[in-house]
Amino acid sequence: MATVTFDHATRVYPGTERPAVDQLNLHIEDGEFLVLVGPSGCGKSTSLRMLAGLEDVNGGRILIGDRDVTDVQPKDRDIAMVFQNYALYPHMSVADNMGFALKIAGTPKAEIRQRVEEAAKILDLTEYLDRKPKALSGGQRQRVAMGRAIVRQPQVFLMDEPLSNLDAKLRVQTRTQIASLQRRLGVTTVYVTHDQTEALTMGDRIAVLKGGVLQQVGTPREMYDAPANVFVAGFIGSPAMNIGTFDVKEGAALVGNAQIPLERSMVAGLTDADAGKVTVGFRPESLDVVPSGTPGSFQVQVNIVEELGSDAYVYGSLQSDLGTGELSAGDSDQVIVRINPRDVPMKGDIINVAIKAGHEHVFSASSGNRLG
Amino acid sequence: MENLQITAARPEAALLDLPWNVALEDWPTDVLAALPRGISRHVVRFVKLRGRVLAVKETRDHYAFREYELLRRLNKLEVPCVVPVGVVTGRHTEDGEPLEAAIVTEHLAFSLPYRAVFSKSLQPDTATRVIDALAVLLVRVHLAGFYWGDVSLSNTLFRRDADQFAAYLVDAETGDLHRELSAGQRMYDLDLARTNIIGELMDLAAGELLDEEADEVAIGDALVDRYTELWDAITAVESFSADEHWRVDERIRRLNDLGFDVGELTIVTDIDGTTVQIEPKVVDPGHHSRRLLRLTGLDVQDNQARRLLNDLDAWRAATDRLNDSEQLVAHDWLLHSFEPTIEAVPRDLRRKLEPAQLYHEILDHRWFLSQRLHRDVPMPEAARSYVEEVLRHRPDEQAVLGLPPERAYEAEVG
Q1: What is the distance in angstroms between the Cα of A135 and the nearest Cα belonging to chain B?
Q2: Same domain, A38 and A113
Q3: DSSP string across B283-298
Q4: Are residues A114 and A169 in the same domain?
Q5: How many CB atoms lie within 10 A of CB B157?
Q6: Count of domains in chain A?
Q7: Dihedral of alpha carbons B206, B210, B214, B215, sign
Q8: Domain of A101?
Q9: How far, in Å, CA of A99 to CA of A113, rounded?
Q10: In this structure, are strands A312-319 and A335-339 parallel, antiparallel, or unpaired?
């Protein structure tokens, strides 16, 4: 087991100007489950492949433990790509299916059996070891594939969107299995996904990338509660955070008809480039429905109500006399408000909402960086 | 509800005849040509459709489109691989339950899966020939910038190619096309290929389908050696002194012998002009098949082409036409030697092997007959004898698939 360090690691594809991964600095602790997440083209898979040795590193270096592996061949890095190969061999027992790579490497028979048995115990496959893979269910077959990587006892597991070709149900199931398995094994794991829910539910820490640049790294809670910039704020969380850019007047942001007071330090942090504006974000659950006329409240016209049983969400439009500011959540171009599922407004209704004290996120309108 | 949608490069109305509203694993045996052997990630079936054999694989739509597109691009790059037919999305059962998308590919006629290659042939060097074919394929795939991600015998099909095999890529699911591959990508592909091949051979051995003498690890290692040898022969930079100009021609001839044409060669001399460096920049496989195609219009695999070209040369000498133009002689050879020989094979036996492979085997048979009879045997006589002594006893290889559909139930239950 080992730490993993990206030290100013950079990848520039031949014939392109902008690096696919630009000066990545990331330290992954021994035994940690780190998720690289971001939209397509953000550099997350490239980063993983640099660690695997599949992509050349054009600048900086990569370390596994204290060892600089920047120029080491993939097979000599002591890493395992999990799930790459799911083809099981029908004539071989489950035990042989799991241990054949050790046999190739010349590992003594007794040791192979011991490692296979250990892995089988963790994977709940002990009773199937001497059977043929045909006797296994789909989920068990998948665990045999995981077992192949486990018996090799690598320093680091790498997983590149391992769940993406599973159907939705098996995906959620396997997600939980991988996360708990990783915790039991305690092997440092780097996991790539485009799905922020997967990232939030699986990772000890999450690293968000965009355009080849690391945006923020932190625990799921940190990423959710204190996004470092507007991109992370909009990317992490489902339903997405409501984000808009508003005029600042007398130390407050004008959201609809409401004045959202800003901390003094935030106002002081505004620059000429911000042109008297500020970007404000708040999550759907950070809004309370309040009586009309409550100070600091603004109006939302209900377009649709989504009822999920335990929760309900209003998708609506910000109402404003002043006509200032645009407010939307994710790709929806609507404001999303979590409401009490037992007290649901009708389509077309106007509701009054106020941001819970201290639950607003304030960003520079020009740089997008968090203020305060 | 989303409607059934077929995305294909050519209109494929016949695809609508297939039962898309049924999960692939439940398709009725009357549409199936065979079930694949082995255990794969996805459900795969071979189907008969108006005289063609198609392979159908279920997967998520994003992956189906991705693989379809990759196979199309690989075909354009002339990488030997299966031809994609289309992607079927928007599938639902009668009850409206959504079904996974399907990617449809053309079954490669006269191709053999590795299990068939190993179980049929008792020739001792089968493994070597399979490994050679896979090494050539991997080099070609890598030259084209394709990182395979899951090289294995089961993701490859083999076609007879004179006395060798030619390998074709079947599964592009895990791959990516790049401008150029890094050494790491090539090495990873190669290492995974080695591991997978050894695993697959160990599986054959466990099923008692492999010659007991065979050394699985040595065969896997042979792939690494063959690949490395071939890659170096093709791409290595060579330096020599300026008065050894013949070495440029020598390098090109060596590449031709390996079956590659040189499309672009960088030649650099040092400042005082005493040493020269050459590096092949663009190489195209299929040197012999291109030459044969140009001369005769026959489109065959490279080793078959080499064999046919040799026969053409021999025929030219034997008919005393060394001073005639090569094109003209080739035309006459086709008319007076190749075509009559193939036509001498009864129509119903011709589906056993491809014409070029038939011709190659008849040439072999003629040599064998001549040895036995101590005289020159003409092609018509060799063809007749080959049909009776050899071809009649050979299995049909136009569509060697997996288990016959009658055994489908048995296979599922195992």
Answers
A1: 8
A2: yes
A3: EEE-HHHHHHHHHH--
A4: yes
A5: 25
A6: 2
A7: negative
A8: 4-232
A9: 8
A10: antiparallel
Same domain, A189 and A299: no
- Residues of chain B whose beta carbon is less than 8 angstroms from a beta carbon of chain A are 37-41, 59-60, 62-63, 100, 147, 149-150, 152, 154, 174, 179-180, 182-185, 187-188, 191-192, 195-196, 198-200, 202-204, 206-207, 209, 217, 220, 414
CATH of the domain at A168: 3.40.50.300
Task: Confirm if B261 and B294 have CB atoms less than 8 A apart.
Answer: no
Sign of CA dihedral B236, B241, B245, B246: negative
Q: What is the pLDDT along chain A (372 residues), one digit of tens a residue?
A: 699 999 999 999 988 889 999 999 999 999 999 999 999 999 999 999 999 999 999 999 999 999 999 999 999 999 998 865 567 899 999 999 999 999 999 999 999 999 999 999 999 999 999 999 988 987 888 889 889 989 999 999 999 988 877 777 878 888 888 898 899 899 999 999 999 999 999 999 999 999 999 999 999 999 999 999 999 999 999 999 999 999 999 889 988 888 888 988 888 888 889 999 999 999 999 999 999 889 889 999 999 999 998 899 999 998 877 654 578 888 888 999 999 999 899 999 999 999 998 899 999 999 999 997
CB spacing of B203 vs A90 below 8 angstroms:
yes
Q: Please name the residues in contact with A263: beta carbons below 8 A apart, sequence gap of 6 or more.
A: A362, A372
Is the separation of the CB atoms in A315 and A349 below 8 Å? no
Q: Are A164 and B147 an interchain contact pair (Cβ–Cβ within 8 Å)?
A: no
Minimum distance, in Å, between the CA of residue B63 and any CA atom of chain A: 7
Domains of chain B: 5-107 (3.30.200), 111-234 (1.10.510.10), 238-285 (no CATH), 300-393 (no CATH)
CB atoms within 10 A of CB B215: 13
Give me the count of residues in chain B. Answer: 414
The C-alpha of B148 sits at a distance from chain A's nearest C-alpha, in angstroms, of: 11
What percent of chain B has a predicted confidence (pLDDT) above 70? 94
CA atoms of B238 and B220, how far apart (whole Å): 29
Q: Which two tokens stand for residue B198?
A: 């050894």
Give the span between the Cα atoms of A205 and A222, in whole angstroms: 9
Query: B382 and B365 in contact (C-beta within 8 Å)?
Result: yes
Residue of chain A whose Cα is closest to the Cα of B58:
A165
pLDDT class for B414, splitting at 50, 70, 90? very low
Q: Which residues of B113-140 are buried (b: 16+ CB within 10 A; e: fewer)?
A: bbbbbbeebeeeebbebbbbbbbbbbbb
Distance CA A311, CA A239 (A): 12
A247 and A296 inside one domain: yes
Beta-ladder partners of B48:
B53
Question: Is A237 inside a domain boundary?
Answer: no
Same domain assignment for residues A320 and A246: yes
In contact, B308 and B364? CB cutoff 8 Å: no
- A164 with B60: Cβ contact below 8 A: yes
A79/A124 same-domain check: yes
The closest alpha carbon to B20, from B123, B125, B90, belongs to B90
The CATH number of the domain holding residue A320 is: 2.40.50.140
Between the CA of residue A203 and those of A163, A189, B362, what are the distances in Å? Answer: 15, 9, 64
Half-sphere exposure of A147 (CA within 13 A, CB side): 33
Backbone angles phi, psi at A346, to 5 degrees: -95, 160
Q: What crossing angle do the helices spanning B355-373 and B379-389 adopt, rounded to 10°?
A: 100
Cross-strand bridge partners of residue B112: B158
Burial B331-346 (b: 16+ CB within 10 A, else e): ebbbeebbeebeebbe
- Strands A242-249, B101-106: pairing is unpaired
A232, A250, A273: which is the final residue of a domain? A232
